[in-house]
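protien #1 (seq + structre)
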Amino acid sequence: RHAVLFFPGAVVAAELTRRDDASRCYEDRVRNALHHLDPHLAARGQSDTPGVVGKRHKPGQTHVVRIALTGGPCAGKSSSLEHLTRRATKEGFDVIAAPEAATLMFNSGLPFDASTDARLLTFQTALMALQLQMERSMTAIAASTGRPTIIVFDRGLMDAKGYMDEALWHAVLDAHNVSEHYVLRRYDGVIHLVTAANGAAEYYKTGVVVDDAGHAVHRHETPEQAIELDNRMQQAWAPHARHVVIDNTGTFADKLQRATDAVLAIAHESHPQEWSRAHAAVFDATAARNIGGPSSAETGGSPGSSRSTETSPDSSRWRRFLGTFF
């Protein structure tokens, strides 16, 4: 670096240009959803025709449908989330797409050190703390909206079990004073997308590849390792009562459709009126345009129904509300 000072001016200029290009490349890498607001991402999960809430914990506390979306490498999670969001919002649900907690940590620059059990325990305990708080915060906010909402978590708490032995897993649970039963019942359903390496091997690629969302990723697992990891994830979630495994039978479009159907089947159990409410709103809006009058969605309710106005809770009520999810 010091030697360049003795080079001709053109060489110095070239060196400064190289450094400037490198700086811009770094800025491009960190300019992502972790640091910059993306209006599209912020609004894409909002339904234009929100349905009527069915199940509530208490007045003003909507039951939020929580889904863990999991699976092996190259399984189609990103495409599945997009497919679900498009259909669910049309059927009256808001869809919240929670980021993967481990990715948040890694993209922030935190290292992953598994050289000793103590360091791995520190990492996994902190990861579970982040995941729990993210789930609790998102659920509390979504429940307060009075709108039927599905939160899709990019991997859930049980995924961590697939990356450690039984003793370390229970040490992580003990650190948070929770049980495996508690972890499992936090989710209304678990959708497992099987890796392409198992059943669609021609689509599984390693190295620097473009994922199904169009993002460049480094996939280091061999097909055999991907299948092994996929199996560990299935085993970890197997005790859940609504564990749905979506394999690679048929086309990729079939796979996405089956995953969306599974999520909405679970969601409609809690909020059975969404489908009819959403389709009634579309019909009502069309009729309103034809006669020049306002639709029921614009006036705040579906035909024959009323919508209550909820006020913001005071601090004591808010603390009781948060206690529902903690």
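ok now protien #2
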Amino acid sequence: LPKLPSGVDSKRCVLRMRYNITTGDFDQNLDSHANCDPKDNTCTNSPIADRNNREALTYLNFLDDPDDIYSVSFAVNTDQHSRTFQDRSYAFDIKRLPNEPKCNKKIHNLNVRGKRGNIVNVYPSVEYDFTPSDLSIESEDCIHIQWIGSDYNPDRQPNNAEGGPYNPNNINEAKADRSNFVQIEDSSKNFPLHVNKIKNPFFSDSNGNIDKELIKRFYFIDQNTKDCNNLTQLILRNPNNRQARERDPKNCAKLNAALNPYFQGPLVKVWNKGVFHFMSTRNNNFSNRSQKVKITVGACTNNCENGNNSLNGLQIFGIIAGVIVAANGLAAVSVGLFKLGYLNKLKYQLSSGRRGGQTKALGKPLN
């Protein structure tokens, strides 16, 4: 990864991706002299014979019989023989890590993919989805939840897409992408958990206590409530027109007051372990238009601020050896199955070798 110069906290970069395809039937080391002359309709400078301009050169005989009847013809189209099929440019910022939260482990990126519309509308793209949609991390890892969309999609109305804001040039059109990120009980549910009913919060402090302000930010994606109307106000302004209410720029329930389709969530340090599920309230539409994500948080295994949550075999052996030395005795140690760093079973028996006495158990077996 590129490094920021000293004293620079952010740098704008541009990534250009091109999908090129070129035939190997002609010299690759060409220059501008091989370009078509605008005054030459047959394009004789070009090494490729196009069937529209030099049709005779697309009929060739590859046999030793000189009769032209044995010629074969080729589907030669210069538009296809050497061209750029896709050319996309993306601007992005590389930023210095903030001082808080202190991320000394992995940083995971969680985004939104897809565009406004149903599966037929958006082809060859996809409908809205989180990416990755199934993410596994460790406790004390950091996650950067951010996404980008567009305000210039083709016009898509309910039930092909949700919300607004409307096109500034035509209030009857809706072209914008918006998403949010709210916790649900499990992937079969389609309504968010009320903040007071979240038993195991994904957004929490280092002690596992719920962070309601962070939840609110991902829930409402930084919309200014001064720009928002409630449903009663929306109905008064747009009577007998539900679609107009859904496109209304002051409909914050549809996330319409978000100023642009880019949402940059803060860097979040994850503390609580468990399996967490999230959805977008605006775009999640039961069936194939499901915008959900599953995040599995396992135990921290290294560089842990709260101490290592799991012990490996060598660490456990060291603890046992320390106990043995402290007891000044001999030991027969039986260690059971280790799985993901957890000790499932440990049995030990200590005997006083020097004194020749009876077997003395210093602890109960862990079953």
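The first strand starts at residue 10 and ends at 22.
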